[in-house]
Amino acid sequence: MAQDYLQRYLFLILGFFGVLSALMVVFTKNPVHSVLYLVLTFFAIAGEYILLNAQFIAIVNIIVYAGAIMVLFLFVIMLLNLNKETEPHKNPYLKFAAVITGGLLLIVLVGSLKMADTTAVATPFQGYKGVIKNLADVLFTQFLLPFEISSILFLAAMVGAVMLGKKDIK
Amino acid sequence: MQEIVKGIPLNWFIILSGILFSIGVMGVLFRRNAIIIFMSIELMLNAVNLLLVAFSAKWGDASGQVFVFFTMAVAAAEIAVGLAILVVMYRNTKSTDIDVLNKLKG
Fold first, then answer.
1. Quick check: A157 and B78 CB within 8 A?
2. B27-82, pLDDT tens digit by residue?
3. What is the pLDDT of residue A5?
4. Does B92 touch chain A (CB under 8 A)?
5. Would an 8 Å CB–CB cutoff place B78 in contact with chain A?
6. DSSP codes, chain B
7. A113 to B86: CB separation less than 8 angstroms, yes or no
């Protein structure tokens, strides 16, 4: 029984750090700090995935998001030399209105889904749904065609990015 | 009551995803820097991913985690193209402020 409460404490700690660093992503002025806080948020979310017994998704989340995508962001920020507080604050009402809107959305979401399903999810390290073998069985049988099509998507994205990035297209 | 104590309740995950999604929406609404707006979109995508994994664990169905896998693939492609567009935009306007981009307005 103590182990069950340990999971809840872990969830609350990870959730607290995730939400805190997500807030810092939005509220810090410097874009580089914003990227680093987003990496922290991704690590917290990966911890939640491990609590949900989804180890593969947790590792892929760290490798793809915290590894690849955030490096791309940092690269672009440093390439464009944006690593200073260059953002002008034109309208003070805009920030106020955005916070009010986000808060209202939060109130609606939490208020409507607060008691949606209070039953517990599967306890970790007992079910085997998140283990790689089971996931691969589903991915390479039921979802084989979308998996192959996603490679075409990547090819198209790569060609598009190169075309956009070229200086002058003859 | 015995069942409720065991494990983490599903609605905790729903509420956490709601909080992260709302923070992402807030970021899109009030930041003017296009890169931060991209990051807020990533935050929203991750909130939805967390919800998908939570429901997948709840119903014992691995399809939800496969959906998350595809979401990550599409997000990676989206970010590659989006950042390329941003670099082109910076090259033309010397700024990543989205308020500069009102020239398409009729």
1. yes
2. 998 888 888 999 999 999 999 999 999 888 888 788 888 999 999 999 999 999 99
3. 78
4. no
5. yes
6. -HHHHSS-BHHHHHHHHHHHHHHHHHHHHH--BHHHHHHHHHHHHHHHHHHHHHHHHHHT-THHHHHHHHHHHHHHHHHHHHHHHHHHHHHHHS--BGGG--TT--
7. no
User: Which CATH fold topology does B7-95 show?
Assistant: Helix Hairpins (1.10.287)
- Between CA B40 and CA B87 the distance in angstroms is 18
For every residue of A118-133, DSSP letters joined together read: -SBPPPTTT--TTSHH
- pLDDT of the residue at A41: 94
Question: Does domain A1-89 match CATH 1.20.120.1200?
Answer: yes
Judged against a pLDDT cut of 80, whether residue A130 lies above it is answered with no
Question: CB of B3 within 8 A of CB of A91?
Answer: no
Q: Is the CB of B7 less than 8 angstroms away from the CB of A120?
A: yes
Can you tell me the distance from the alpha carbon of B26 to that of A148, in angstroms, rounded to the nearest whole number? Answer: 35
